[in-house]
Design a protein that fits this description.
Number of helices: 14
Strand order of the largest sheet: 6-7-9-10-11-12-13-14
Radius of gyration: 27 Å
Structural class: alpha/beta
Low-confidence stretches: none
Number of domains: 2
CATH superfamily of the largest domain: EAL domain
Bound molecules: ligand C2E, magnesium ion
CATH topology of the largest domain: TIM Barrel
Largest sheet: 8 strands, mixed, barrel
Shape: elongated
Helix content: 40-55%
Number of strands: 14
Distance between the termini: 53 Å
CATH architecture of the largest domain: Alpha-Beta Barrel
């Protein structure tokens, strides 16, 4: 790679994760390239320099740069324009700061670059002063972004490398103890950090939209697992519940994806239960209700998760015809100490039953909790008392 002999001239600028903050400079003109690289390096950025849009695109495919400086030379400069066009596509994070370096003060050219999604521009004759000012304004933002983007890159790589797997937690009938289903829970088999639980990566997946491809992957894994169990001759008298996030449900091709997955697998759709939280129904209730209704008509089961914690509203409950209602584990955990929790759980069970749903209590850890739930008429339980989530070889 052409680094034009750039060296760090000041102390390194570090992101929140303690690593250097990367910047990419693309300019076909050697002198400008060197100037830009030196200015960034003197502020501590780890600079990668390239002369061609093609090379820049290759670099951007492998790594996310929070700051990109694009030189746009002569009017109609094909390399600058080509890169700018690519910039707001899948190559560059939407939050990355992209600055065009215009080699002349040509309003039309500058406007074109801005239209292509460039955030800001600097005009070459006053480069030194303008770049200094811009960098002062954006450095902290770029610095914060750097560690985020790196984590997102790691997640994207993990999806490519297939590092996610599912564990399965049994759901049992409270009377009799028969296993009626499983909840599939995602884990990241991280190459160096070991097995990571959703709390460690889901928030970033949600924030970056990666929860959509992750969710698709999870559905594929669950369906494939069901097929495997069937092939192995297990009696298929149980459901597998898969968590569906709000963004995933909102994705335009969600219903189509699930229907196709179901068709391709040859399984009975009832065996797949889609678990949604009330919160995922809030942003566009009509849209969400319509999608879930189509899936239910196609035979899939639906479950409402974490009931009682989100924007609990009884109006959602009667609009979304679901098969099960899951009582959040915060209520279950409070059953022994708190009479109020007993009253709430009793009420949730009454509402659920009167709407024709089965009730599942999650986070059941003790025998008194189970006994109380059973006494209150709850149908199913899930929790460490019965089993931790296990790998598919230990289920069903
Ligand atoms: P959730 O859907 O409410 O799942 C139940 C969580 O409670 C799981 O945590 C499970 O391991 C944990 N749990 C089960 N029994 C007990 C118990 O007796 N005591 C306690 N304290 N906890 C218990 P996990 O696997 O860490 O998942 C956390 C959350 O991450 C899930 O909550 C769900 O919202 C989300 N999640 C997990 N897998 C997926 C997935 O594939 N896609 C999406 N979108 N979200 C997922
Ligand atoms: Mg769940
Ligand atoms: Mg839950």
């Amino acid at each position: 790679m052409d680094t034009d002999g750039v060296q760090l001239e000041g102390p390194a600028l570090l992101a929140d994760d303690g690593q250097a903050v990367d910047a990419l400079v693309m300019d076909p003109e050697a002198g400008t390239r060197r100037l830009l690289a030196r200015a960034l390096a003197s502020r501590g950025f780890a600079v990668t320099v390239t002369a061609s849009a093609e090379e820049a695109r290759r670099l951007l495919r492998g790594k996310t740069f929070p700051l990109v400086l694009v030189g746009w030379g002569d009017p109609g400069d094909p390399s600058g324009e080509a890169l700018c066009r690519a910039l707001r596509g899948p190559l560059v994070s939407r939050e990355a700061v992209v600055i065009m370096v215009a080699h002349r003060n040509d309003g039309a050219e500058i406007q074109r670059a801005l239209d292509l999604g460039v955030d800001d521009y600097i005009v070459l004759p006053s480069l030194g002063h303008q770049l200094e000012t811009r960098l002062r304004v954006i450095t902290r933002r770029v610095q914060r972004l750097a560690s985020r983007l790196r984590s997102e890159d790691a997640l994207r790589t993990a999806l490519d490398r297939d590092e996610f797997r599912l564990v399965y937690q049994p759901i049992v009938a409270l009377s009799g103890g028969k296993r009626v289903g499983y909840e599939a829970l995602v884990r990241w088999q991280h190459p160096t950090r070991g097995e990571l639980s959703p709390a460690e990566f889901l928030p970033l997946c949600e924030a970056s939209g990666l929860v959509v491809p992750l969710g698709t992957r999870v559905l594929e894994l669950a369906v494939r697992q069901l097929s495997t169990w069937q092939r192995l001759g297990h009696p298929m008298d149980f459901f597998v519940a898969v968590n569906v996030s709000a963004l995933q449900l909102a994705a335009p091709d969600f219903v189509q994806n699930v229907l196709e997955l179901g068709r391709a697998s040859g399984l009975r759709p009832r065996q797949l239960k889609l678990e949604v939280t009330e919160t995922s129904l809030v942003s566009d209730p009509e849209e969400a209700a319509g999608k879930l209704a189509r899936l239910r008509v196609a035979g899939f089961s639906l479950g409402i998760d974490d009931f009682g914690t989100g924007y609990s509203s009884l109006s959602y409950l009667h609009r979304f015809k679901a098969d099960t209602l899951k009582i959040d584990r915060s209520f279950v955990g409070a059953l022994e100490a708190d009479e109020g929790a007993v009253s709430i759980v009793r009420a949730i069970i009454a509402v659920g039953h009167s709407l024709g749903m089965k009730l599942v209590a999650e986070g059941v850890e003790t025998v008194p909790q189970r006994d109380t739930l059973q006494r209150l008429g709850c149908d199913y339980g899930q929790g460490y008392l019965f089993s931790r989530p296990v790998s598919p070889s230990r289920a069903p």
